[in-house]
């Protein structure tokens, strides 16, 4: 029983560590001349095709066209934007800074949990909101005054991906009538479709035939990694309360900070570190928000 209860959290832990370094292949592919939007579309399409082959006997049309199909659509769109914005932010922005803005997610998780899961807001919930807003204000504050809003493309992508990640996390918890395989396919197809749409809107035509074999191999490996990490995180999110999942996923920030230190020349200011520590503190406090909430879920897996 203990092992069964611990496995979802272990899955999230491994997924978080994996996502902490998964950004690097995308930067390598961008440096090889492949637009980030197209890289996202191709890698997630590869992951989706592999998943369809592996789980073809676990997904039926009747399961897709369920009365609660709107939850799958929400996961499709939410996870699609989360992955696209997160990766584009990492490619074009500062890794740790983008991740810190992404991990404002507990703030949004509290709000979405209240709206969709009817989870009551405790005093700790108000503290999390206060800490999150304080940390974000320090991180986004600019000399000269004005509202502390994102000023760069990477900042906006990090912030928006955190909002949709929180929404997706809550929808995954709400959609217990759907199997983890079906929700995983919704996530992968969402990122693939939004990636292709973004490519068509923002990028000129690209000749895929001109890609060297090394780039294709890296794309295939990245697609396989995306599938594995998606499955680990999906399983964990399905069985772990939303705000606890956010806290476990914080290890992604640690892994990414270490990786960025050795793989890039990026650095944060003292104010960035202080704001980041406050944001992390808000995430740690969010672990207690659902402690007294029953963790109801089906055994669909």
Automatic annotation (TrEMBL):
SUPFAM superfamilies: Multidrug resistance efflux transporter EmrE. It is a multi-pass membrane protein. It comes from the Bacteria. GO terms for cellular component: plasma membrane. The keyword Transport does not apply. Coiled coil: none annotated. The keyword Zinc does not apply. The chain crosses the membrane at residues 7-26, 38-55, 67-92, 98-117, 124-141, 153-172, 184-202, 214-233, 245-264, 270-289. It is found in: Cell membrane. Residues 12-140, 153-285 form the EamA domain. Keywords: Cell membrane, Membrane, Transmembrane, Transmembrane helix. This is EamA domain-containing protein. It comes from Nitrosomonas stercoris. The lineage of its organism: Bacteria, Pseudomonadati, Pseudomonadota, Betaproteobacteria, Nitrosomonadales.
């Amino acid at each position: 029983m203990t092992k069964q209860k611990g496995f979802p959290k272990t899955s999230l832990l491994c997924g978080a560590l994996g996502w902490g370094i998964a950004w690097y292949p995308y930067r390598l592919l961008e440096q090889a001349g492949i637009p980030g939007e197209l890289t996202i579309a191709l890698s997630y399409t590869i992951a989706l095709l592999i998943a369809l082959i592996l789980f073809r006997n676990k997904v039926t049309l009747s399961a897709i066209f369920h009365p609660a199909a709107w939850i799958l659509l929400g996961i499709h769109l939410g996870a699609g934007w989360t992955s696209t914005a997160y990766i584009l932010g990492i490619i074009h922005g500062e890794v740790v800074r983008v991740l810190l803005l992404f991990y404002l997610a507990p703030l949004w998780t509290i709000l979405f949990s209240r709206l969709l899961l009817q989870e009551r807001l405790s005093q700790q919930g108000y503290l999390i909101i206060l800490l999150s807003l304080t940390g974000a204000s320090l991180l986004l504050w600019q000399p000269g005054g004005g509202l502390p809003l994102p000023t760069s493309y990477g900042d906006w992508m990090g912030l928006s991906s955190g909002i949709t990640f929180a929404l997706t996390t809550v929808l995954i918890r709400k959609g217990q009538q759907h199997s983890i395989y079906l929700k995983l396919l919704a996530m992968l197809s969402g990122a693939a479709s939004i990636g292709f749409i973004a490519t068509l809107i923002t990028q000129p035509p690209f000749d895929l035939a001109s890609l060297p074999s090394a780039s294709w191999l890296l794309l295939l490996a990245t697609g396989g990694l995306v599938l594995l990490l998606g499955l680990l995180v999906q399983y964990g999110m399905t069985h772990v309360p939303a705000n606890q999942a956010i806290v476990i996923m914080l290890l992604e920030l640690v892994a990414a900070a270490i990786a960025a230190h050795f793989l890039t020349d990026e650095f944060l200011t003292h104010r960035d570190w202080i704001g980041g520590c406050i944001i992390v503190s808000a995430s740690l406090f969010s672990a207690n928000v659902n402690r007294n909430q029953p963790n109801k879920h089906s055994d669909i897996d």
